[in-house]
TrEMBL record:
It comes from the Eukaryota. WD repeats lie at residues 1-23. Pfam families: WD40. Belongs to the THOC3 family. GO terms for cellular component: THO complex part of transcription export complex. Signal peptide: none annotated. It comes from Prymnesium polylepis. Keywords: Repeat, WD repeat. This is THO complex subunit 3.
Length: 114
């Protein structure tokens, strides 16, 4: 669900992310840039962006209102989870990738100024 409670998103094996209006139960827009099953979806704190991760080895960030791509984050493995910071446009994500020593379990942050 979006933070404002007006929308919810669904994704699945068809690789589509659909954004629905809660009040009318109408699909407002669909993001179709992914090619593999959707594993995770998250709305930003301001309900303006939606991040979706899949087996594509990328995270798609789209504008909720238009479904236009705002950014794509390349990844080295399929992603299992994405989560926005509750007050900032920071995105944490983790997947099946490994660190330099071959150990699994890497958490990354996107959006933090260098």
């Amino acid at each position: 669900f979006s933070a404002d409670g007006e929308r919810f998103a669904v994704g699945g094996a068809d690789a589509l992310v659909s954004i629905w209006n809660v009040k009318d139960l109408v699909c407002e827009t669909t993001c179709s840039r992914l090619e593999w099953p959707v594993r995770t979806i998250s709305f930003s704190h301001d309900s303006q962006y939606i991040a979706s991760g899949s087996e594509d080895q990328l995270i798609d960030i789209a504008e909720v209102a238009t479904s236009e791509q705002a950014h794509a984050i390349p990844c080295t493995a399929p992603m299992n989870t994405v989560a926005w910071h509750p007050k900032r446009l920071l995105l944490a994500f983790a997947g099946d990738d490994k660190d330099k020593l071959g150990r699994e379990g890497i958490l990354r942050i996107f959006g933090y100024p260098a």
